[in-house]
Backbone:
C-alpha cells in the first residue's frame, strides 16, 4: 500500500507515459530513427534571438499579463483577420497560453462539467485522454479510417446526444495528417448548432 503522500488522485491514476516520449526514449535507447517527435534541426532565426536579448537587456522582466501581452494579442487578432477573415477582440476574445497543451486543458476545465460527453475523432492526439480525466468528461469516439480518414456522416450524427457538451476537432490531425474538408467542417458546425454544443479546435 503506497503511503498517502505517494498516492495520486483518482482522476490522475489513468495517466500513462506519453506515447511520443516513450518512442523517443526507446529510439535513443536502441539508436533507432525517431519518427515520433519532430525537432527543429536548425537554429532559431537571428531576429528572434536578438528580440530575446533585447528583452533581457531592457529589463522586461515583470509578470506578464495572465492572458498574454497586449501587443501579442493584437498581432494574433491581425493574423486571424488576414488569414481567416475573422474579427476577434484582442481584449476579450484572445488568450495566450504556454502551448496547445495548456490551451486544451484550460478550455476543457473551464467549459466541461463532470459527466458531459465530448466527441473525439479517432485516431486522436493522446493528450485528450488526460484532458478528459481532469475535467470529468466522457469521451465519445468517432472512428476515421485510412486511407482518406473521411468523416462518415451517419457515425458522426450518432455520436451526438443531448449529453454532448463539445466536439474536439484537430486539423491538420495528429497522428493521421488528415485535413478536414470544408464540407466536413460545415457538417460539424451544423450539428453543434442543432445540439447546442461547442466545437473546440486544436489547430496546432
Ligand atoms: C494536435 C496537437 N495538440 C497539441 C500538441 C501540444 O502542443 P504544445 O507543445 O504547444 O503544448 C501537439 C504536439 O505535437 C499536437 O500535435
Residues:
Amino acid at each position: 500500500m503506497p503511503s498517502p503522500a505517494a498516492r495520486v488522485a483518482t482522476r490522475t491514476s489513468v495517466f500513462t507515459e506519453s506515447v511520443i516520449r516513450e518512442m523517443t526514449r526507446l529510439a535513443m535507447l536502441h539508436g533507432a530513427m525517431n519518427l515520433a517527435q519532430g525537432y527543429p534541426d536548425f537554429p532559431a532565426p537571428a531576429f528572434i534571438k536578438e528580440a530575446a536579448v533585447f528583452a533581457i537587456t531592457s529589463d522586461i522582466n515583470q509578470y506578464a499579463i495572465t492572458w498574454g501581452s497586449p501587443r501579442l494579442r493584437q498581432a494574433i487578432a491581425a493574423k486571424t483577420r488576414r488569414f481567416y477573415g475573422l474579427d476577434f477582440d484582442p481584449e476579450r476574445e484572445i488568450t495566450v497560453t504556454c502551448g496547445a497543451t495548456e490551451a486544451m486543458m484550460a478550455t476543457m476545465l473551464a467549459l466541461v462539467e463532470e459527466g458531459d460527453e465530448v466527441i473525439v475523432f479517432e485516431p486522436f492526439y493522446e493528450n485528450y485522454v488526460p484532458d478528459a480525466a481532469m475535467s470529468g468528461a466522457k469521451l465519445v469516439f468517432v472512428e476515421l479510417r485510412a486511407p482518406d480518414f473521411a468523416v462518415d456522416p451517419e457515425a458522426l450524427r450518432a455520436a451526438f446526444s443531448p449529453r454532448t457538451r463539445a466536439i474536439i476537432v484537430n486539423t491538420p490531425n495528429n497522428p493521421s495528417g488528415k485535413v478536414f474538408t470544408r464540407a466536413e467542417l460545415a457538417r460539424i458546425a451544423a450539428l453543434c448548432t442543432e445540439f447546442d454544443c461547442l466545437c473546440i479546435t486544436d489547430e496546432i
